[in-house]
Amino acid sequence: MIIAEILSYPFLARALMVGFLISVSSSLLGVSLVLRRYSMIGDGLSHVGFGALGIASLLSLSPMAVTLPVVVVASFLLLRLSERRSGGDSAIALLSSSALALGVAAVSIGGVNTDLNAFLFGSILSVSKSDAWISFGVSAVTIFSYLVFYHQIYASTFDPVFARATGMKCERYTNLLAVLTSLVIVVGMRMLGSMLISSLLIFPALSAMKVAKTYLRVSVIAVAESVSAFLIGFILSYALSLPTGASIVIVHMCFYLLMMAAGWWMRKARTSV
After folding, report:
1. CA 190 to chain centre
2. CB 3.0-4.6 Å disulfide test: which of 95, 126, 216, 220 passes with 118?
3. How far apart are CA 132 and CA 147, in angstroms?
4. CATH top-level class for 2-272?
């Protein structure tokens, strides 16, 4: 079987594990981000990551060492911008496009090397043992935090005013969400690249919302959809020699269309009863 063949290669087995963990983590975070209307943050952070990667390459610095702190700081800035009542989306777009322009300029000056190309567009071969351990740590922290603070995240997502009235420090959980999102994006860049990583945050949540109405069901279906899309995309990329990141996103797109059709059929069935 093709799965056994994939697992026979250590680097593919590592990539499979990393992708599985990142898929679970990103789908959980994506539900809260989409419900809070913070979807632009994921896309903005990926562009900021691109700019940081370009500068790191130009200065011959470690991509991970430069990208991680820059994206974490940018997540807080983008979060504050998104909370503005007017001009928030415009400010995020300006910051994202500026970071993207800096990255393009840095790449054009310094040239594209193998490591930078892997971060930009994703590469199975670039997943090392250290990347696997880092992804395991980030995913463990993300899943643990989500489970432990599930009720706080739920309350601050749906009714932050009431949550604050009860004494809950909503800003703490919002900041936690921003940090975890930054970590997942930076780690996930190795797999999908900075150009496609934001799709792991958005597609599962949007797909799940087409067929589920409660927060818990949306979260569960989002995880199932994300893991399924990754596994199918991973296998297709191996079997057909396609780019892994693009294959996974295409499968996500297909799942979204299927769930949109399923949601329409479910609504029609309810109204006809």
Report:
1. 12
2. 126
3. 22
4. mainly alpha
